[in-house]
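Tutorial sheet, problem 5. The three components below are modelled jointly, 1029 residues in total.
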Amino acid sequence: MSDAKAVADRLVKAKRLNALLTPPKDLRKSLAIQEAAARPTGVLYGMPVAVKDNICTLEFTTTCGSRILEGYRSPYEATAVAKLKTAGALIAGKTNCDEFAMGSSTEHSAYGRVLHPLDKARVPGGSSGGSAALVAAGAVPAALGSETGGSVRQPAAFCGVVGIKPTYGRVSRYGLVAFGSSLDQIGVFGRSVHDAARVLSVISGRDPRDSTCEDRDPLRLPTVPESLQGFVIGLPKEYFPPELDPAVRRACDRAVRLMKELGAAVREVSLPHTPYAVPTYYVIAPAEASSNLARYDCVRYGPRFDGRVDLRGLYRSTRGQGFGPEVRRRILVGTYVLSAGYYDAYYKRAQQMRALIAQDFRNAFDRGVDLLFTPTVPSPAFKAGEKLSDPIAMYMSDIFTVTANLAGLPAMSLPIGRIKGLPLGGQLVGQAFLEDEMIEAAYALERVVPATDEA
Amino acid sequence: MSVSREEVLRIAQLAELDVEKEALPELVDNMSRIIDYVAQLSAVPANGTVKVFVPGPDAIRFRADEVTPAHLAFGPAEFAPDFKEGFFVVPKLGQFE
Amino acid sequence: MSSSWETIIGLETHVQLRTKSKMFCGCATAFGAPPNTQVCPVCLGLPGALPMPNGAAIGLAVRAALALGCTVHPKSVFARKNYFYPDLPKGYQISQFDQPLATNGTLSFLAPERGIVTAGVVRLHLEEDAGKSIHDRFPKATAVDLNRSGVPLIEIVGGPDLRSPAEARAYLQTLKQLLEYIGISDCDMEKGSLRVDANVSVRRAGETALNTRTEVKNINSFAFVEKALTVERDRQIALIESGGAVTQQTMLYDSKENAVRPQRSKEESHDYRYFPEPDLPPLVLTPEFVAEQQSALPELPAAKRDRFVATYALSREHATVVTSNRAVADYYENVVRAGAEPQAAANWVMTEALADAKDHQEQLRVAPGALAQIVALVKGGTLSHQAAKKVFGEVAAKGGEPRTIAEALGLIQVADSNVVAGWVTDVLGAHASEVGRYKSGETKLMAFFVGQVMRASKGKADPKLAQRVLEEKLTAS
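Model answer (structure tokens):
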């Protein structure tokens, strides 16, 4: 059923996208070894799954798209990767990403930007752009990504594939290189809802190595429903502002109409603190990142830049040159908001705002709404370089996705149409640990939505 | 500018990051814009009525006190930039002493 | 000069908890392994590794907090303390900050100048240790060993309640004794399992406000506690008396020079940017868990001392010595339970048993039952005190039953008055002039006669009996 050579051929063919960081030779060699070792009884036997380069693997280097980890081989593998292998999947190389998952375009990789599979002048989204692009290009049926503020859903939307971010605590983070620990989750990309969901089901579940992973059984896959009878879908009005791109609105309206036709009840809801989500995120994520990235000090691993004689000088030159500009900027912002005299004004406030945002969701769900539906991103894939000089403009492309990370909720994006040939994503946000309901609705919508038609 | 040049340099020292002179003006500008942007958070009532939110389990699970070292596929000598006689080796501490 | 000055000292004590595995990973904590062999992704701070807390370490920390009378909080929070140092693998230490495990306890101890002092314990929190930087291993380079990285510690922050270097030493001694007693740590300063930093300030007698303090670090041995603090106190007093002012800084103690020098470091390194550790949910302690730790606590030294005074009628001083160590206290009670008279048992434990242990790797070599028998033999007049010491030594070295050994060594006292009377007659016959002097009033010669009888009997005569027979004969004739 599987064929390591065919898998490798498909991946090498997609080389022009710069989505894969693993050299073809290493990839072919490892796939052959993995195929021989794979357990035929596994539920994912022979399924190639590409893995974002910030998830530790024994087979390939783990660089996080950064020079500071150039050539780094992890002596252990992530729990999610071990679970994939136990299920018989093949680890199909490491995918390019924004450095340490910081970015929304995969332009912030030390190893070059990833091209959008449908328009090489555009970005595939980010930070898991390599994984999204490979799935969109048909090189692999599924791939792992990671989310801190939308890094799976946003590139899934840009590339026209399915992307799921599970509930915080659903999938072990052990072996996922930390960015914002209280926000990070491993997520999955699939050509279809089913491909993504079955990979998610395999990697989910308890892990004695991650204190933040819930002590729960793995996710059970729902069956494809006949209708959406009984589902109440909420449309948060803050996610459909007057200035929303009309094509995005049209695609969403069409998806909503189709869900209604399937029997779902639809009602408008309000998540009033939504406007504060991006600033909240851009305090908490950099604060945690500034601490998480302190370990890259070139003492125990990673290359050293500039052999200065004293250690502090070596720290500064290695970290100064090893990290790219966006990572440096976020480390500085994070250090600033945690430093003496600023903690209460920024970090503490952000933690409080986070509670208000989470409460918004609980209020909506308490009023009988099962799921929320929104656009995933306010616009389709933008052009490379378009937002590089304006960090805040780049941050705004996370505006509809960061809330689920802040509230720790499951959310996913699936293709709901196109605008001038570029894919658009629709987002479903579910209740904590009710991924099954969310996936059930996605199954139903996926069957009826004209995902490749112009909206 | 809500963040001064001096503050950026002080923060960079805390974070152990070299900042090139040429890059400094843009960095000061970027940081000021980001800090101004996130200053919207002052909308949170400051009276302390809002509890913070932490996702994930409500309580720590306890690990049993057993010697069960996680397996390393290969040792530090394979990934360390400088490893001698069983030690990680770094240049003299300089200002740290 | 110090008479017009008051010294204010507060100690911050780091104590390694007695666990098999580290605080946040399954690596061994055993001391002395080759460098970097007890390491894993977690304690090496590898990318992607996450902490998993050791329940036993948390239990031991709670026991320490309860023993110090602290309020143990049902919910506390781990926090990251961020700073760069080559032996700090993650670039932060997992510790606790604004929501510690326990607060507001006390420790009572016997201060040399002030008697019983009750010092405050401000807080007690859990944290992980860093690794070890070795600066003299390689030329121009620092060697880093991470075996110790992640070993569980508690930090006990004492209040500014100590008034002299000697008092600080007494406090630390009592704290160490308590922690050893409850079995949470071996408190070995030489192995680094007990470390102490001191906050020191001085003020003129009568002042009430606290002046600028310094932190004294690098006090590596118990012997240096008093010395280091004395040096720093004298430095501060001299500084102020010469018109200077104390600046807040960290002073490193150099035991070779018996001097302190300021640590060279930039102020910004003290901006630790604490924030709640996002990799760990809150530390929630159920009432059952805390109760379990409470019931695992042995009787604490102070309570035991009071009980020994009440039950065994020991003086406070004797009870303090006997309860200074849990093993010694248990030993003492076993000797008493085996039938020894309590005060005599205390005398034997405090002198012979402890002296013998000191010379023999701290082993109490004579079984409690055997010591009880020795005490009984002395009391019953079968052994002289001197002979009993010999028997004790033999039993300690070779084991065996005290009476059998005493017999084999010919140390049993002769209590047969006829036999003793024979020796007495011989002695009086041989010392006619002394007999004459005695009879004319020089009664202090009795000691001489007893000595002569002991000599004649080769030490076997019961001296009390000998004296009685002598008195009879000297007054009768």
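Marking note: Chain C has a mean pLDDT of 92. Full credit if you identified this.
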